[in-house]
């Protein structure tokens, strides 16, 4: 596996163990059928509790069954999952960073006890409802609202593009609290079997096909007051979750890129044209040289991000740079790897085209490439250019 500057040398025993466990798990249980799942637009649901058993959901949290592993270990886990498929990493990211994290950070004791162990074991599935049909890049304009009705809230609105909503037991829904004069955004834990909740599946995807995506319809859905996340109000709530998930994506994308590189490297030595392996041609070597270099740079950024996060010094802007760069790298390198595989490269027998298609989603969700560009633009000029 590509590790040109020997980052492995600095890993601790626990970090190697988590990485190797994830690598073995995907090799044995997921890789053999992932091409079929991608083609059929299905997610291998039977692995959800198995991933829980192995500690793949938010192992970087502390307590309630989570072992509080290092941020590097968590990153390596995301890297191995996404080296298999972005759908797999998305499952773990949503469950861990977008559902368990807000409950852990902002939930009541009762909410933590009810949900964190079950989500961690993969006995319950969660989803995160922020995006709406008319509000994607600017979620602060959300229209979903919560009206106080005396002993609880009534939620009305719709969310879309929600990973796992059709299979979720609970949704973290972000809505405007109209009972407060400032109408701040609040987080609500909405069990998906409540009256008025619908979770239609989106079926027309050409990207992230091995992942279930859907809507959340909220038609006068009553939730008791104890389902509100008490510890946060305002956009800080959802944005802080996205910072956690984007951290995992910055690592995960390196895994997808590395897998493309390894497929291309192998193919370059296996495939003969003009009387010998295509890897002897300088044009092919140049592609591998560039891929190897770009992926190594992305790895270095991910490792540095882990150090900053571990020290409590990671800022959202750091994450924007790493997510933006590493996903772009994976998207570009997947395409070059696909090219090196010739006609075989367009099939599901090899991973690059699947990764390439997946990267279109990863490039767009959790803040589009453009939006992270604007975040960095503001960081470097002091002038926000969002409007
Ligand atoms: P828009 O915001 O409409 O953007 C369209 C284009 O305009 C983009 O290229 C964008 O970069 C550009 N643009 C927008 N504003 C600006 C600006 N100010 N300056 C320059 N360019 C701009 N959301 C959830 O809440 N939960 C989930 O689990 C989830 N999972 C997803 C899974 C998949 C498969 C996909 C595709 C999306 C998912 N999303 C989820 C939604 C995702 O986060 C949004 O698609 C994303 O935020 C972009 O919003 P949008 O699609 O409405 O695009």
From TrEMBL:
Domain Acyl-CoA dehydrogenase/oxidase N-terminal: 13-123
Signal peptide segment: none
PROSITE patterns: ACYL_COA_DH_2
Domain Acyl-CoA dehydrogenase/oxidase C-terminal: 234-378
Keyword set includes Transit peptide: yes
EC number: 1.3.8.6
UniProt-listed Pfam families: Acyl-CoA_dh_1, Acyl-CoA_dh_M, Acyl-CoA_dh_N
Domain of life: Archaea
Pathway in which this enzyme or protein is active: Amino-acid metabolism; tryptophan metabolism; Amino-acid metabolism; lysine degradation
Identification of the protein by name: glutaryl-CoA dehydrogenase (ETF)
Organism: Haloterrigena salina JCM 13891
């Amino acid at each position: 596996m590509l590790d040109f500057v020997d980052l492995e040398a600095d890993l601790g025993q626990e970090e190697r163990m988590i990485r190797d466990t994830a690598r073995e798990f995907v090799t044995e249980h997921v890789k053999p059928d992932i091409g079929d799942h991608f083609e059929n637009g299905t997610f291998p649901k039977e692995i959800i509790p198995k991933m829980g058993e192995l500690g793949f959901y938010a192992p970087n949290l502390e307590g309630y069954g989570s072992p509080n592993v290092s941020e590097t270990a968590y990153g390596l886990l995301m890297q191995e999952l996404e080296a298999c498929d972005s759908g797999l990493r998305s499952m773990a990211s949503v469950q861990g960073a977008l559902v368990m994290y807000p409950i852990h950070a902002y939930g009541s004791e009762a909410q933590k006890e009810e949900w964190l162990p079950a989500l961690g074991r993969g006995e319950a599935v969660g989803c995160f409802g922020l995006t709406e049909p008319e509000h994607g890049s600017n979620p602060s304009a959300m229209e979903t609202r919560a009206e106080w009705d005396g002993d609880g809230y009534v939620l009305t609105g719709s969310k879309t593009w929600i990973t796992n909503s059709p299979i979720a037991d609970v949704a973290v829904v972000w809505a405007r609290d109209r009972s407060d004069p400032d109408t701040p955004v609040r987080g609500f834990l909405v069990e998906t079997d409540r009256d008025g909740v619908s979770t239609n599946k989106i079926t027309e995807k050409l990207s992230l096909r091995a992942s279930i995506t859907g809507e959340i319809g909220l038609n006068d859905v009553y939730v008791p007051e104890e389902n509100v996340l008490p510890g946060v109000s305002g956009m800080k709530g959802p944005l802080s979750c996205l910072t956690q998930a984007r951290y995992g994506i910055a690592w995960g994308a390196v895994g997808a890129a590395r897998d493309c590189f390894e497929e291309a490297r192998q193919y370059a030595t296996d495939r003969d044209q003009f009387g010998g392996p295509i890897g002897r041609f300088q044009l092919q070597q140049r592609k591998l040289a560039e891929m190897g270099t770009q992926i190594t740079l992305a790895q270095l950024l991910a490792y540095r991000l882990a150090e900053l996060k571990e020290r409590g010094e990671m800022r959202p802007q750091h994450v924007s740079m790493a997510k933006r760069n590493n996903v772009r790298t994976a998207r570009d390198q997947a395409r070059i790897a696909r090219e090196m595989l010739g006609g075989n490269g367009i099939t599901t027998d090899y991973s690059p085209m699947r990764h390439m298609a997946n990267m279109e989603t990863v490039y767009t969700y959790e803040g589009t490439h453009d939006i992270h560009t604007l975040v960095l633009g503001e960081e470097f000029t002091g002038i926000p250019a969002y409007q």
